[in-house]
Design goal:
The protein has one domain: 60s Ribosomal Protein L30, Chain: A, CATH 3.30.1330.60. Helices cover about 50% and strands about 10% of the residues. The protein has 7 helices and 4 strands, in the order αααβαβαβαβα. The protein has a 4-stranded mixed beta sheet with strand order 1-4-2-3. The radius of gyration is 23 Å and the shape is globular.
Length: about 180
């Protein structure tokens, strides 16, 4: 019994000593936000609020970020997908590449499947809006093309995304 009390007191003393010996200067300064995440956020905000006419002219589309382990497009994606559908209906020679990405959580095979499922969900929605399926190609990259190596929750969220790229080239010239 005395031994248990002695060990308990010793452990508390040891932990207290360790905790008090750590200075705040020992930690690297905390960066508020990764510059890559900040750049993506600013670009997406600017691109998301553009008109259909502006998007058709620049052919630049913001990326859409996903919740963890989710395949279902977030609610804010649907107005953007409707803009993309309008542009593609107005420009029948325009093609779209949809690239799916995942974060580092999970194994490579699952993340590849997840990123393909995310891109496929976007393609399915556009096809349901009248866009021909053969005008849309999907690519799945899993966790192979991260925006940031920051493994915080913000960094992982930035990497869970779908990106869109318009092209005017014929598919036979690309593949």
């Amino acid at each position: 019994m005395k031994l248990k009390i002695f060990l308990s007191i010793s452990m508390i003393g040891l932990l207290t000593a360790c905790a008090s010996s750590q200075k705040e200067d020992d930690f690297p300064p905390r960066v508020e936000r990764d510059p890559a995440i900040e750049a993506q956020s600013q670009s997406n905000d600017k691109l998301y609020n553009q008109s259909v006419a502006r998007m058709a002219k620049t052919l630049q589309v913001p990326s859409i970020t996903y919740e963890f382990d989710s395949v279902r497009p977030p609610e804010e994606a649907y107005p953007l997908l409707d803009k993309i559908a309008t542009i593609m209906k107005d420009a029948p020679t325009l093609h779209l590449i949809i690239e799916g990405h995942a974060d580092v959580v999970g194994n490579a095979e699952y993340n590849y499947w997840l990123s393909a499922a995310r891109a496929s969900a976007m393609k399915s929605y556009l096809v349901s809006r009248g866009i021909e399926a053969d005008r849309i190609r999907i690519h799945a990259y899993g966790k192979d093309r991260p925006i940031t190596l920051d493994n915080s929750s913000q960094g992982r969220r930035a990497n869970r995304r779908v990106e869109f790229k318009f092209t005017k080239r014929n598919w036979k010239a690309i593949y």
